[in-house]
Amino acid sequence: MTKKILLCDDEVHILRAAEFKLKRAGYDVRCAGDGQEGWEMIQADMPDIVVTDLQMPRMTGLDLARAVRDNEATRHLPILMLSAKGFEAEHTDQAKECGIVGVLAKPFSPRELLKIVEQILETGTAELPRAYAV
Q: Which CATH architecture has domain 4-132?
């Protein structure tokens, strides 16, 4: 069965590049322009992994992660956070509380994202150089 990936980011060029790479690798990829849309999509069609930007309108990536963890039906979902700015200590603590499995700093290559997503889907963790577990 094809694994489903939900990408949440308000930067369309990032969504399209990531979507293209992940679809070419055989994944079923859905895209959301913000955390609120992502949360609605999760409830309608459960993905196998969520890849979300930190800073988005309507609902941030951390708020999305909290919603996922607070819901019995979704709390098992692995979440990879994307962050354009430095991931400060305050965010690291919040990410731990939200169950984020790793953080990938922007800019990143779609190839790098694919490797990390594959690793998380296989092992539940992200151990590549620029994706650090929280």
A: 3-Layer(aba) Sandwich (3.40)
